[in-house]
Design brief:
With 593 residues, the chain is mainly alpha-helical. Helices cover 65% and strands 4% of the residues. The protein is built from 24 helices and five strands. It has a three-stranded mixed sheet with strand order 1-2-3. Helix 2 (12-53) runs antiparallel to helix 6 (131-149) and helix 14 (335-356) crosses helix 15. The chain starts with a helix and ends with a helix.
Length: 593
């Protein structure tokens, strides 16, 4: 009887699809709540504030404009004090760390923190995007579902990615873009069919919910697109892709330069976002286009803004305003600023080429449209996301070729000039390649100094071979011995292989000194070397032991690192983290219940 009942129950994959569908619906609802919160704050602080202060009248009252973003930044203070480390700054890098390197457990409160903090930042006029936070909100919903069902770490990762896909799909009304955003950026390019089907379902249903509430209108209107002369325009788009790639690298490095400057600034952390808002408001007095998410001006650029100089200036100012907002501690993402910069950069380029080739090129708006996808791809290193986003927003097959050319070549250019995307710089600074996975990250986190066998035998270079043989007899588990000089510093390594030719000649064993036969050009490690590098050396050199010295310039022998030492240290760290993650999951489930 029980077997017959089980036959009608959904299988493992079917259950995953059903759960992904629920996540998609919840993500669609979260998008509505999030957008309404941003619009409400914008109406209260920015629109009503402008009217109350008389800023719309112009003149000296324009100087009061910075008070509006400063008000939003000031309202972040209670939230930041209540939840330290969860509110301020660009949080998507930490989100990727939690998903790909940690346990994927995200608290429910993070959903409300992201909604409120981002709404206060962007709604008051600070420069940031809503797409990164909505992806994190969707991911948090997926994590909550995974915690309720107590799924494995791998399945938790799929549910989080499904929530992210639903968030991006619903906010842009672009389900394919949501799928590839989750695959390329959140799952780091993983395309397993089981996870991919979950992303498809979540993305589709989130879009259905969003369209039911907002209709089928795209995030911003895209003009009709045509290629006037392919033989002329494709080479021009290729040149544009190179320019976009270079600009994307400058944008990424400039952002982290500003952020690092704010971190070094000797000012209370709660005051820094207010200072940043003051600076952004100061820019907004002269160029109000940089304030908020910039969607209004993106629409103008796509419609064909013909002032090339203004758009060129806005490339720099939007990058600066975004770096100030997020670097100082404002909440938000970098997706919308990337769309803005891509639109104005492409629009400026389009104005120039259309001026010189009016009969053979499309209008500036067409180049602005392609620029959106190209710059987004170059900054995120996610060309498929950009290509499908533009295609879904335009519904025009004609745009596919130029977007593919610029997105791929722009990504190649930016990757060649700077290996990191906007989201991976902090990982690289820590010596972590997030694309290599959790296991490599754990190995890189373990230092050789914690794994070495410190009880090590060594031999003087003035000892004869008989002394060495006695040492081999006593230390049965060692095959290599460090050789030291009269000052106690290591000069080489000796092994049984080095003495096999004179092993049976008593006279030779007495006459030959260890220093004459030892290998002197040897690999040495220091205690600060990570175990991942050590394992690579074990594999490349085909050896099982490497000497560890205090310093490469003054090689005092500390011990010998064996391959098994690294494996033991790795297993110990995995066990420790597993216990911690399990305890955290149980604690969060109990607190939520």
């Amino acid at each position: 009887m029980l077997t017959k009942v089980k036959r009608f129950l959904p299988g493992e994959r079917a259950r995953m699809i059903l759960i992904a569908a629920c996540i998609g619906v919840m993500s669609g609802g979260a998008i509505i709540a999030f957008r309404e919160a941003v619009d409400l704050v914008h109406e209260i602080i920015f629109v009503w504030g402008r009217e109350a202060l008389g800023i719309n009248e112009g003149g000296w009252r324009l100087l009061l404009l910075p008070l509006l973003p400063m008000a939003g930044a000031g309202l972040l203070i209670p939230l930041s004090l209540a939840f330290p480390g969860r509110v301020n700054g660009y949080g998507f890098t930490a989100f990727l760390r939690r998903v790909n390197l940690e346990n994927g457990v995200i608290r429910t409160r993070n959903i409300f923190i992201k909604i409120i903090a981002t709404a206060l930042t962007i709604g008051s006029g600070n420069s940031a995007g809503v797409e990164g936070p909505i992806a994190q909100i969707g991911g948090a919903l997926g994590s909550q579902v995974g915690q309720r069902f107590r799924v494995s770490g791998k399945r938790m990762k799929v549910y989080i990615a499904a929530g992210c896909a639903g968030g991006i799909a619903g906010i842009f009304n672009a389900p394919l873009a949501g799928i590839f955003f989750a695959s390329e950026i959140v799952l780091l390019g993983t395309y397993e069919i089981s996870s991919f089907s979950a992303l498809v379902v979540a993305s589709a249903l989130s879009t259905v919910v969003s369209r039911a509430y907002y209709g089928t209108v795209a995030a911003f209107p895209i003009p009709d697109y045509t290629i006037v002369n392919a033989l002329v325009e494709i080479p021009l788009y290729t040149l544009m892709a190179v320019i976009v790639g270079v600009t994307a690298v400058l944008h990424i490095r400039f952002y982290y330069l500003i952020r690092d400057w704010f971190r070094r600034l000797r000012l209370h952390d709660q005051i820094k976002p207010i200072l940043g808002a003051l600076m952004v408001g100061g820019i907004g007095i002269f160029f109000p286009q940089v304030m908020g998410n910039g969607y209004d001006y993106i629409a103008k650029a796509l419609a064909g803004d013909t002032l090339a100089w203004r758009m060129m200036v806005l490339v720099f100012l939007k990058s600066l305003a975004t770096a100030i907002t997020l670097g100082s501690g404002g909440a938000g993402g970098v997706f919308a600023p990337a769309l803005f910069i891509g639109a104005v950069l492409g629009g400026a380029y389009g104005c120039i080429v259309h001026y010189f080739f009016p009969e053979m090129t499309a209008t500036a708006g067409a180049y602005a449209t392609v620029g959106i996808g190209a710059f987004l791809a170059a900054t995120t290193h996610a060309p498929l996301t950009a290509i499908f986003l533009l295609f879904e927003m335009t519904g025009n097959y004609m745009i596919i070729i130029p977007v593919m050319v610029t997105a791929v070549l722009g990504t190649v250019t930016s990757s060649w000039l700077y290996s990191d995307s906007m989201d991976t710089v902090d990982f690289t600074r820590e010596g972590i390649d997030i694309h290599e996975g959790r296991e490599v990250a754990i190995l890189k986190s373990i230092r050789v100094g914690k794994a070495i066998t410190e009880d090590v035998d060594f031999i003087s270079e003035t000892a004869n071979i008989n002394h060495l043989l006695e040492l081999f007899r006593i230390a049965r588990n060692s095959f290599y011995f460090p050789v030291i000089n009269d000052k106690g510093m290591m000069v080489g390594v000796v092994s049984m292989q080095d003495i096999k030719t004179i092993l049976h000649d008593e006279e030779e064993r007495v006459c030959h000194l260890v220093g004459a036969i030892c290998a002197r050009d040897v690999i040495m490690l220091t205690p600060d070397t990570n175990c991942y590098e050590a394992m690579q050396l074990f594999d490349i050199k085909g050896i099982d032991e490497i000497p560890v010295v205090e310093d490469l310039d003054e090689p005092w022998v500390l011990g010998m690192l064996k391959r098994q030492d690294v494996i033991t240290a790795y297993n110990h760290e995995m066990l420790k983290r597993g216990i911690q993650e399990r305890a955290e999951s149980i604690r969060m489930i109990c607190s939520a219940g």
